Amino acid sequence: MRPWDDPNLHRDGHDPRSAYVERFWIAVLGPSAVWLLRLLAREFDELAPGENLRLDLESTAQRLGLQHRGGRQSTFMRTIDRCRTFDLAHFENDDVLIVRRQIPPVPRRLHVRMPRELRAEIGRWTRTVGHTDFSVGETRLLATCMLMLGHGLHESAERLVMLGLAPRAANEATAWAWADRCVRPHATRGV
After folding, report:
1. Terminal C-alpha separation, the chain
2. pLDDT of 79 above 70
3. pTM score > 0.85 for this model?
4. Which of 93, 100, 135, 155 sees the fewest Cβ atoms within 10 Å?
5. 3-state secondary structure string across the chain
6. Residues 158-190: pLDDT tens digits?
């Protein structure tokens, strides 16, 4: 398996382990496909640059609580097919599966698969302009605070969205704060 890095999703994409994917994609994709994407995201994070991920299908299926008897109709293969159906993975050849590292926003045409309350909530996550009026510096400070409080990268961005920032602004501020934290881990940071 290899990661599929799509530059178009660097700003608007969501980590498979994010609350967005759990909240919205699970209603469309199903829980086993979401858990597969999460498992692969963790595995990809541990790879060295240029290294491919080699997984035993039987063992991976068992880690997800699924069966894989080697056929196309096994629950594990159907899970992979769901990821392919929604353009989250594709086969390069018979031996290599390419899987997205960032999950796109749920397409509008798929919102009908969601319960009514999720359809109402997803609008807050897909807008490009937030309803708050923070400067770039304030947004970065908020993201830095979220990280200092112990929230992870993706959880911090999601909390900023819940505060009223547009997802793009939240992702940019959190990425900046994360990079700043990594570059200057012991220095006093300015915004």
Report:
1. 39
2. yes
3. no
4. 93
5. CEEECCHHHCCCCECCCCHHHHHHHHHHHCHHHHHHHHHHHHHHHCCCCCCCCCCCHHHHHHHCCCCCCCCCCCHHHHHHHHHHHCCCEEECCCCCEEEECCECCCCHHHHHHCCHHHHHHHHHHHCCCCCCCCCHHHHHHHHHHHHHCCCCHHHHHHHHHHCCCCHHHHHHHHHHHHHHHHHCCCCCCCC
6. 888 888 887 778 888 888 888 887 766 554 445
